[in-house]
Amino acid sequence: MSNNVKKSKEDVSLYKGVWVLAEQRDSQLLSVSQELVSEGRKLADDLAVELTAVLLGFDLKEIGKELVAYGADRIIMVENQELKHYRTGPYARVVADLIKQYKPEIVLIGATHNGRDLAPRLSARLQTGLTADCTKLEIDPQKKILLQTRPAFGGNLMATIICPEHRPQMATVRPGVMVKEEPDYKRQGNIIEVSADLSKKDIMSVNKKEAQIIKMDSQLSREDLFTKITDIVKAASKAVNLEEAEIIVAGGRGVGSADGFEVIKELATTLGGEIGASRAVVDEGWIDKEHQVGQTGKTVHPKLYLACGISGAIQHRAGMQDSDIIIAINTDSAASIFEVCDYGIVGDLHEIVPLLNKAFQKVEV
Ligand code: FAD
Questions:
Q1: What is the pLDDT of residue 235?
Q2: For this UniProt entry, which residues form the secretion signal (predicted)?
């Protein structure tokens, strides 16, 4: 429980349905939302209930259709200029009110920067549990509750967490963890439009044209709009898109220094891939955190993962072991990365990686 005042046991039978809080940036659906809708579909089928995707923002019509294609039965759409960009106050208020009104039994949220900000606030407002960074979600076949599995104790064991007495059961999942299904653009779903006039006081009204809409009783006051977005500055550097990369060349402490990363970067460029890293080198300051793969970094599924000078600690493996092909280069033949690789090369990466680079430069793609 996230609140000091203990909430008494509630009638959980009043809650029905699986929800995914879908996320958009500049009216583009995030990949993690496609993954969560695909996963939510399986949970909803196991429970024989509807899957609803909740979408806040502006100019959302096309995203609504996309969410249906990925498996949602129903979209609750709240369109408003004030919701165009994520802000804690209005988003938390609108979503908490929707949950109180519609009472879903499960709510899934992407563990993005915004999702990590929103999810704990919702769990505190709703006085229910939240399991962060789940790697597996299942329905208990007997009790019909959500089994939320995540690494615990530094990744040395997997804990399955349940929330039996309170609702909704809330979980966050990091991008890249769940598998995205193929979208089916012929699927049909319901789109429910809820309008929120956030510029005036009290202000949650409902588009009455839609037959299914239930009038919201939540009221948004100016308190919910206490922050103002004056500007959005995007990082000037090229965004690292490890989750969607097909080829990743990753370096660990074996590269020896920040300059030692050059050979990794050169090979990644030749192969048209992204650069990955272990936490050790991020902690050393040799490369940015956005390159980190693993339990506290990103989860990746490339076609090819080249692990260079990485020992293969369980926390690193948690983020890359589902890659299609893993090649490991390490001077220590007993390194545990060799337990998960398809091809292993025992040797000095500073000799082997430049040789590979030269060889691949000659290959015409
Ligand atoms: P090391 O363990 O120091 O290994 C370096 C390897 O390089 C060795 O195997 C060595 O034989 C080899 N080597 C040395 N020189 C050369 C050379 N010239 N050529 C080839 N090989 C060479 N780690 C992550 O990576 N990602 C995470 O998300 C993550 N999360 C964590 C979360 C928690 C709660 C904790 C406790 C730890 C986490 N860690 C994570 C850290 C993890 O436990 C390891 O410490 C880390 O992965 C080690 O990084 P490394 O393999 O680069 O370094």
A1: 59
A2: none
Give the integer Cα–Cα distance in Å for 196 and 207: 9
Structure tokens at 319: 């983020």
104 CB near ligand 1 (under 6 Å): no
- Relative to the CA of 337, which ligand 1 atom is closest? 9
Whose tokens are 């609140």? That residue is 3
- Whether 218 shows a pLDDT value over 70: the answer reads no
Q: What is the DSSP code (8-state) at residue 255?
A: G
Q: Is the pLDDT of residue 95 over 70?
A: yes
Whole-prediction pTM value?
0.71
User: Residues annotated in the binding site, as ranges?
Assistant: 253, 278-279, 292-296, 309-316, 330
Nearest CA to ligand 1 atom 36: 154
Confidence band for 230, pLDDT divided at 50, 70 and 90: confident
Residues of the chain with CATH 3.40.50.1220: 247-362
Domain 12-224, CATH number (from 3.30.420.40, 3.40.640.10, 3.40.50.620, 3.30.360.10)? 3.40.50.620
Distance 278 CA to ligand 1 centre (A): 6
The two three-digit tokens of residue 266, written as one number: 């050169």
